[in-house]
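Need the bound structure for 2-acetamido-2-deoxy-beta-D-glucopyranose, inputs here:
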Amino acid sequence: MFNVKAAVVIWASIGLSLAQTQVTVNVGSTLQKIDGFGVSQAFGRAAEFQALAEGPRRKGLDYLFNTTTGAGFTIIRNRIGSKGADSILPNSPGSPTADPKYVWDRNDSGQVWFSKEAMGYGVKNIYADAWSAPGFMKTNGNEANGGYLCGVTGQTCSSGDWRQAFANMLAQYVKYYQEEGIQVSHLGFLNEPDYTTSYSSMRSDGAQAASFIPTLSKTLQSNNLSSVALACCDNMGWGTTRTTASALISAGMESYLTLLTSHNYNGDPNSVISTRLKTWQTEACDLQSRWCTTWYSNGGACEGLTWAGKIATGILNANLSAYIYWQGVEVNQQQASSYLVLSDGTEVFPSGRLWAMAMWSRFIRPGAYRVATSGSVSGVSVGAFKNTDGSVVGVLTNTGGSSQNVKLALNGFTPNAAGAWLTDNSHQVAGVEVTLDGSAVTVAVPARSVVTVKLTEAS
Ligand SMILES: *[C@@H]1O[C@H](CO)[C@@H](O)[C@H](O)[C@H]1NC(C)=O
Ligand SMILES: *[C@@H]1O[C@H](CO)[C@@H](O)[C@H](O)[C@H]1NC(C)=O
Ligand SMILES: *[C@@H]1O[C@H](CO)[C@@H](O)[C@H](O)[C@H]1NC(C)=O
Ligand SMILES: *[C@@H]1O[C@H](CO)[C@@H](O)[C@H](O)[C@H]1NC(C)=O
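Answer from helper R.:
Posting the output first, comments after.
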């Protein structure tokens, strides 16, 4: 990193002769609040990670959470299990009103360990999400293969209405985490409710979710857990999230919920969904490729630049407040790129996808606001953010084939120091030169790269 104070750079001397394109950053004009970026270690991936030797385990944790050497993630997404030893309520109490026999192993498939490690790096956003209710609470008697929570709109069971019992179980899960010193900050009760599959899955449309949300909200309140923010509905993609959102909004659910949550499997977030709720991309990944670490080759599904583009579109065009990739660290899963960091048990390998997320996550910290920009640069999307510590961050995502010189002119902010970092095929969040001149900074943004600029104000 270079801290250049009012320096004059002779572009010719470093071989650049491009025209500058100016973008104005209106620091006083705030848009959505940013909660952060992160991953999950659901379905036993936390326990596998925990079981690594101390060397690779620490290296993996640093790649995820360290703000100097890794992505600096600030959100984790844990799975609330729904069957057998995976669940805090493995057996039916017999009826919805009978006393439930909860079981707590203080481990939760390694997620207690993972949550504590994340907290050690300062993570405060812990999103706990149920993929399904236990089978005995559902119309199909199975935690897998779809089915509905007994008692939601249009769905009845001979065993009764299990909505309150499911709400009680979710509150108990949050309390067990509290006992371990972990504060669940966000709670969801659905995962891909518009999809039926052979592992934990439960159906729900927006109206059915709305027939449960007030019960869950009231149950959190009566358990002194009203600080836990409610999320819904982790739909398969942006299209179904939009449909679900309109049902939730017309049922008055904006007053109970904090987050509208989406996955990207049948549609990436690319346009605003009109709601006063924050929107989070809570799960996104490449489900097609073998493990790859590539930044850019041909725009393939596993490449870092591909994900840099998706994140930029989500934050800048779809008003996202958070972006969560599916899994973080996996061990010996060379057949997949649905995660960011691979360990073979000895070594640990980051991917271009990790560095794409790092270009946002390391610099734009929870509580930051996106701020308005005007002007455009060919091939480059420009996002600007103001952190709670007063620093201003610009993320320049160049998906085009030509290098650009970008001048960011700041309105309402007088920087006295600037740093810039580059990720492309030969750099991973590497410090590069940036020129600060009055209230403007100029930086070179190579073809197919991301450059993040951070400015601090005169004090
Ligand atoms: C949690 O369980 C996993 C197996 O699922 C085990 O490897 C790990 O040591 C356990 N962790 C704790 C803290 O008990
Ligand atoms: C992050 O990594 C740096 C460099 O290895 C190290 O000094 C620092 O302690 C790490 N931070 C945390 C929170 O572990
Ligand atoms: C409710 O929670 C707050 C902090 O979250 C705690 O200080 C208080 O003691 C709790 N009250 C009860 C009745 O558990
Ligand atoms: C963006 O989301 C916020 C909530 O985080 C909302 O208040 C704001 O109106 C949204 N912006 C647009 C353009 O819809």
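Comments: The chain has two domains: 12-31+370-457, 35-368. Residues 297 and 303 are 7 Å apart (CA to CA).
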